[in-house]
Every structure is written in structure tokens, then in C-alpha cells.
Amino acid sequence: MKNIAFLYNVRHHYPDPKDSKTLKETDFDDPETTKLQIKYLRKLGYTVFPIEANEKAYLKLYRLKNKIDLVFNVSEGLHGSDREAQIPAILEMLQIPYTGSAPLAQALMLDKAKAKEILLENNISTLPFYLLGRNDVNSNISFKYPLMVKPVSEGSSAGITNKSVVRDFVQLKKQVNYIEKTFGEKSLVEYYLSGREFSVGMVGNPPRILPILESDHSLLPKKYLPFDSLEVKWFFEIESKGHDHLKIPAKISESLKRKIEKICYSLWNAIGIRDWCRIDIRCDENENPYVLEVNSPPGITPPEHDPACYIVRMAQASGMEYEDLLQEIIYTAAKRYGIKI
Ligand SMILES: Nc1ncnc2c1ncn2[C@@H]1O[C@H](COP(=O)(O)OP(=O)(O)OP(=O)(O)O)[C@@H](O)[C@H]1O
Ligand SMILES: [Mg+2]
Asked: Ligand 1 — pocket residues by CB below 6 A?
């Protein structure tokens, strides 16, 4: 195996909570990340064909079809609620092998409400929720405040700011309106969990769990509310290189660890994930863990550019370098297709 097409979405604007135009690209990588990722794949000895996952991607893939052994897919897709399924669907049609999950699982993981429905159906711990558009917010909402309000199909904390925790009906209505206006999406509304937060990286088929990371919100500067908001991820972790709050491996009791692992393996099977993913989990005040959401593909930024990138830190904590993680994802996918490596 020699030729790899690298499918990515790159950010054309820097995300700014005050500028809604920039927020739709929050989940995309910045140009430096993409450049470095390509460099690392080349360093592993592959011939790399970088392809931006935009409208022209299909034609480029079609032309390269017979040349490409495997696609390394970190794309998020463009437009619509199923956008993370777009590139996988194209690759299924063209019969080009690729890393990561198939279209159905990709679409499910992007839609936090649908993913949670599947988890609830399978008795996998996640909070009950409402899915609300601006016309659905009425006095029938029976949950007790404070509530967390987030766009149903975004990532990288787009639309998740200090204002996302709402304490009354007026704030709830305002935030649901804001999200619909900014993202054209409904809001996922659930209880605000105030306990410890963990992130769990998984790689392989069947998967293994990388060392678990804890985001210790008690160590954040006081101007941030204790959760991983857009401000924390973009301004604190990236700009100020603040990452002392990320603890890895997390100090957790055996029993909590076992609960989290069981949740993650069951989730992997229930959603039908392949190759790799990252699951976000938060506990209530009694250390009962609940799945917040699943990331596929999770961000995979080289450490020299973003030392806070979760799955890379997890890999490092298990003794792997950045390129080892890339290589393992490639080998995992190749093995699944029976491609000789
Ligand atoms: N119900 C909740 N209770 C408390 N905090 C929450 C809740 N839901 C989300 N959060 C906080 O907001 C952060 C972002 O939420 P979530 O992981 O759903 O968004 P995302 O944008 O998909 O994240 P990612 O960067 O992992 O793609 C979480 O890491 C957590 O700190
Ligand atoms: Mg998350």
C-alpha cells in the first residue's frame, strides 16, 4: 500500500463567538493543521493526494480511483445535517477503501439527538433530552434548570459558550433562538451535568481504549464556566496554550473506569463504529457517567501545533508518537479491507 488520498475540510475563517459567519467552520481544521497532517503522512512513506472535501472532491476521487489504495478521511463535509457522511458515501460509491466509519454511523454521530436515541434504546447511559426549535420552546418543558443548550449537529464546541447553560425559561428561549439563527439547527436541551468530565479514545476493530483523559474544569480561569466551551477550546487551549487542566491518564477508581469502558464498548457496537472515535462523557455529582456525544473523526492535530488535541495526547500517554497514531489508523482500516500493508 503506497498511495493515500487525504480528505479534509479546512477553515477559511477563524472561529469567533461574536461573528456567526465564522462559526460554521469551527469543526474544520486550520490550514497549518492540514499542512502538517499531510507532512506526517508523507513522512510515513506514503504518496499523498490531498483533496479538500468540497463539491469538487467527487471528481478528483473519480479520476484518482485506480491510483488510490486508501483514503485517510478527516473531513467533516459541507452543508446539511448528514455532512459527515458525504465523503464516506462517495467512497462507498467509488469503492475506494477509507479510514473510519461508514455513512450511516457518520450521520448518526453528527446528529447528537439520533445518537442519543440509539443509546437510550440500548440502555447505554446518556441523559434524556428535548430537541427544540424556536417555535417549540413552551411551558411544557418539564426539566429542572440549569439546562445545557447546544446545537444538535455541530462539533468543536461551536455554539457552546458561557451562555449555553440556561437558568430559566427566558434564557432557554433566547439560546434556542440564537442557535437556530446561527446554525439553522434545532437545539439539544438536557440537564447540566456538574461532575467530572472524561474523554475516551478508541482505535481498532475490535477497539482498544487509549488512556482516559480528564478535563478538570476546576483548573480553568474563573472567567470560564466549568465546561469545555468554545472560549476554552479556542482561546484558552489554543491561543494561550493552556492545557494543565487536561489530566492523562485520569485518576479514576477501578469501578468508574469499568463503567466508562463498558459504556464505550457498548456504544461502539450500538452505533456501528469502525477504526477510531472519541467519546465524551460527563458525570453527575455522584460520579455516575453519561455519554455527551461521539466524535468521528475526532480532531487529530499534531502536538507542535495544538498540544491540547485530545486523541493525540491519549496516544502519547500510551507511548505512541503522532505518526504512530496515523499509522495505526491506516493499518486498522487496511486490515478491515484485507489490503496488504
Ligand atoms: N449536558 C451537559 N452538562 C454539562 N456540560 C456539558 C453538557 N453537554 C456538553 N457539555 C460541555 O460542553 C462541552 C462540549 O459539548 P459537546 O462535546 O457535546 O460538543 P462538541 O462541540 O461536539 O464537542 P467536540 O469538541 O468534542 O466536538 C463538553 O465537553 C462539556 O464540557
Ligand atoms: Mg465533545
From this structure: 148, 150, 154-158, 160, 190, 192-193, 197, 227-228, 280, 282, 292-293, 295
Residue ranges, comma separated, of all CATH 3.30.1490 domains in the chain are 128-191
Distance CA 140, CA 88 (A): 40
How far apart, in Å, are the Cα atoms of 41 and each of 9, 11, 73, 98, 308?
17, 20, 12, 15, 21
What are the pLDDT digits (tens) for 39-53? 999 999 999 999 999
CATH architecture of 3-104: 3-Layer(aba) Sandwich (3.40)
Pocket test for ligand 1, best of 282, 283, 296, 309 (most atoms within 8 A of CB): 282
* 144: three-class secondary structure by DSSP: coil
Q: Which residue lies with its CA nearest to atom 13 of ligand 1?
A: 228
The set of residues, in sequence order, having a beta carbon less than 8 Å from that of 216 and lying 6+ positions away, is 196, 245, 246, 247
Residue 157: what residue type?
A: S
Q: Which fold has domain 128-191?
A: Dna Ligase; domain 1 (3.30.1490)
CATH class of 118-123+196-337: alpha beta
pLDDT tens figures, 138-164: 878 889 999 999 999 987 788 999 999
Hey, whose CA ends up nearest to atom 9 of ligand 1?
292
Ligand 1 pocket: which of 106, 160, 183, 267 to mutate (most atoms within 8 A of CB): 160
Atom of ligand 1 nearest to the CA of 157: 21
Q: Where in the chain is the domain with CATH 3.40.50.20?
A: 3-104
- Cα 274 to its chain centre, rounded Å, is 14
* pLDDT (0 to 100) of residue 15: 67
The answer, yes or no, to whether residue 19 has pLDDT greater than 80, is no
The whole-chain average pLDDT of the chain stands at 93
Cα of 201 vs centre of ligand 2, distance in Å, is: 12
